[in-house]
Design a protein that fits this description.
about 575 residues, Rossmann fold, 23 helices, about 20% strand, globular, transport, ABC_transporter-like_CS, ATP hydrolysis activity, ABC_transpr_CbiO/EcfA_su
């Protein structure tokens, strides 16, 4: 007994073709299953069919059957579905129903008529699992993206459902918080034997937690349904625009044949390849370091607080930005990363300090004037989108700035092409996935042609193929002299593309240096809730002493493979 899709097809009412095509899938009671696929593959639609958002929130027509324990699930009321399937939505803002964190988590307990003292005790324990007990009285809307995700997860943990469905639960979490979230999901699965279904892009972090099965979707169909080890052996992830674990990628780039390996999800099983890997990396030709020029932007002793009683969010932050560099800003949820970007763009007015652009004090510039220089892409695309159609959204800023329609059309077309959105030019935004909406907001900023682009989690919700294409586009901008500043929890992404990294924790800079030096500093990573990459773990397995050099060798080896 469990979930059963039988020849199931679904087509949204505003689309010509089905998004799900002849899905046949059985998920047994108590299984732990990962569903993965590139953006637009249909995995979120599959999740929405399970949790009742289809057909109640998203209309369309279906064929075939969707059964739960042998009885029809599709078409039941949302109330009925929620008693069996608890869901963590990808967009946490859409899940909150109370004014405080504690009240939101307690919602299920209140519905069950639980006594208040017992309710407080249970809420406290659940929040403690996510290190969020200090935020019990805070409004969910005033939390960072990662903190919101934790609260949403805590709320569903409080529900006593037989199936737990997590739609990209790691999307806004820093690496350590993501690991803790997966540890919590894993522990819940082991203790309760509930069915756990995870829809997620961050495959490496999820697979490390011993999933029973991996289902890979592409263009609305199921292409693979088997064990994670089988998937890594046959390369189905890479073939379908998904990212393999970094250590697997490293071995493939070194010419290692993985087709006969039996335990690829366990890095310890790959010790026998040490000699081959080190031999290949020894021949890597290192790129020359580019000397830094005069700073484009100087940030001097920046201080900021949202409310004095809540303390300083930024505490004496000082750093420089250089023309044509790629800077990653790393750190734990709530470290002040997004606030720092908002201070650069003028959305947050500093309590103290100065920001100089080419030597000119821009601290008192208006947001409008700063927008000529700095383009800001928010973490949540729904906070930026104002138009119904994709074309109009990308054209919105240009039209507000008085560009004629010919210039608007040229820039919009260019942005659509560069962000991989040309096929969706005439689509309504409501038809897009979260990751596709993200690309629309990025395209709307790129159309303005700023000198500096700052992006808050630019690749969250995007598959490997799309984010690789987009990041390569950002690299072309970098080569043209545009400065790129990026907040990211994706350490793989930072390692591959960033020249330099700044690590924040508690509103202060812990380290400012090359990406290799930063990611090899275990002490700093631990303080900032960042995990070592699996390349570093491979280096430890191979007894490498200078991790920063090993990291650089591996990344440059990968780049040379791509260029060849």
């Amino acid at each position: 007994m469990g979930i059963c899709f039988k020849d199931f097809t679904f087509q949204y009412e505003n689309l010509k073709n089905p998004t799900l095509k002849n899905i046949n899938l059985d998920i047994q009671t108590g299984e732990k299953v990962l569903i993965a696929g590139p953006s637009g593959s249909g995995k979120s639609t599959l999740a929405h069919c399970l949790n009742g958002l289809i057909p109640h929130a998203y209309k369309g027509k279906h064929e075939g059957e969707l059964l739960l324990n042998g009885e029809k699930l599709y078409g039941r009321s949302l109330e009925e579905v929620s008693k069996s399937i608890g869901t963590i939505l990808q967009d946490a803002d859409g899940q909150f129903i109370a004014l405080s964190v504690g009240e939101d988590v307690a919602f299920a307990f209140e519905n069950d008529g639980m006594a208040v003292p017992q309710m407080h005790e249970k809420v406290g324990k659940i929040l403690a699992n996510f290190n969020m007990e200090a935020f019990e009285e805070r409004s969910p809307q005033n939390l960072s993206g990662g903190q919101k995700q934790k609260v949403a997860m805590a709320g569903v943990m409080a529900m006593n459902t037989q199936i737990l469905l997590f739609d990209e639960p790691l999307a806004n979490l820093d690496p350590i918080s993501g690991q803790l979230a997966m540890d919590t999901i894993n522990r819940l699965h082991e203790e309760t034997k509930k069915t756990v279904i995870v829809v997620e892009h961050r495959i490496e972090e999820v697979l490390a937690h011993g999933f029973d099965r991996l289902v890979v979707m592409h263009k609305g169909e199921i292409l693979f349904n088997g064990t994670p080890d089988e998937a890594l052996r046959c390369g189905v992830l890479l073939e379908n625009g998904l990212r393999e674990p970094l250590y697997i990628e490293t071995l493939r780039n070194c010419g290692i044949d993985l087709s006969k390996e039996h335990h690829l999800t366990q890095i310890e099983s790959l010790l026998s390849h040490k000699g081959e890997v080190l031999h290949q990396l020894a021949g890597v030709v290192h790129t020359k370091e580019v000397p830094q020029q005069s700073p484009l932007v100087e940030c001097k002793d920046l201080n900021f607080s949202y409310a004095k009683e809540n303390g300083q969010i930024l505490k004496g932050i000082s750093f420089n930005l250089y023309e044509g560099e790629f800077l990653a800003i790393l750190g734990n949820n709530g470290a002040g990363k997004s606030t720092l970007l908002k201070s650069l763009t003028g959305f947050c007015k500093l309590d103290g300090g100065k920001i100089l652009y080419k030597g000119e004090d821009m601290t008192k510039w208006s947001i409008r004037k700063r927008a000529d220089v700095i383009g800001y892409v928010m973490q949540n695309p729904n906070h930026m989108i104002t138009q119904y159609m994709i074309y109009d959204e990308i054209a919105f800023g240009l039209r507000n700035f008085g560009y004629d329609e010919a210039a608007v059309a040229a820039r919009v077309e260019e942005a659509l092409e560069k962000c991989g959105l040309m096929a969706y030019k005439k689509w309504p935004i409501s038809s897009l996935s979260f990751g596709q909406k993200k690309r629309v907001t990025i395209a709307s900023i790129l159309a303005m042609k700023p000198k500096i682009i700052v992006l808050d989690e630019p690749t969250a919700g995007q598959d490997h193929k799309n984010y690789t294409e987009f990041m390569n586009f950002l690299m072309t901008l970098k080569r043209e002299g545009i400065t790129v500043v990026m907040i990211t929890h994706d350490i793989q992404l930072a390692l591959e593309y960033a020249d330099r990294a700044i690590v924040l924790s508690g509103g202060e800079i812990l380290q400012d240096g090359t990406i290799y030096d930063v990611l090899a500093n275990q002490e700093v990573l631990a303080k900032a809730n960042l995990k070592e990459t699996s390349i570093s773990a491979l280096g430890e397995l191979y007894n490498i002493q200078q991790k920063n050099i090993f990291l650089k060798q591996v990344i440059e080896q990968g780049r040379q493979q791509v260029n060849e």
